[in-house]
Amino acid sequence: MELHERIKKARTELHLSQEYVANYLGVKRTAIVEIESGKRAVKADELRLFSRLFRVSADELLEGDDIELSNEELLRGFSELDDSDRQEILNLIEFKKVQKNKRN
To answer: What's domain 1-68's architecture?
Structure first.
């Protein structure tokens, strides 16, 4: 898997929109589209920000080591959010549980 594919995989596994990632990196959404499609190279400062946002090392993104967040990493990221963002995530989790129960 190539770098651009690993970036897309990490973004989608975290359920982040391209718009959100673009805002985080300080670029336009089209830049993320181009990066994820392999049409644009990732700059060093962008790699650092991708790494921070996805909570994986730059090596994991570059080398293709398994990108999987531990519970500890998720909790650390959750604790860095403000109360409003935490509540939004908790509401989403509850919504997902209800949807899953409806399917079962």
So the answer is: Orthogonal Bundle (1.10)
Distance CA 27, CA 6 (A): 19
User: Does an H or E element contain 50, and which?
Assistant: helix 44-54
| DSSP structure class, residue 42 | P
pLDDT digits (tens, 9 = 90+) for 10-66: 999 899 999 999 999 999 999 999 999 999 999 999 999 999 999 888 888 898 765
Predicted structure pTM score? 0.64
Structure tokens at 99: 């949807």
Q: How far apart are CA 87 and CA 103, in angstroms?
A: 25
Query: Within a 10 A sphere around the Cβ of 34, how many other Cβ atoms?
Result: 15
The answer to whether the beta carbons of residues 50 and 64 sit under 8 Å apart is no
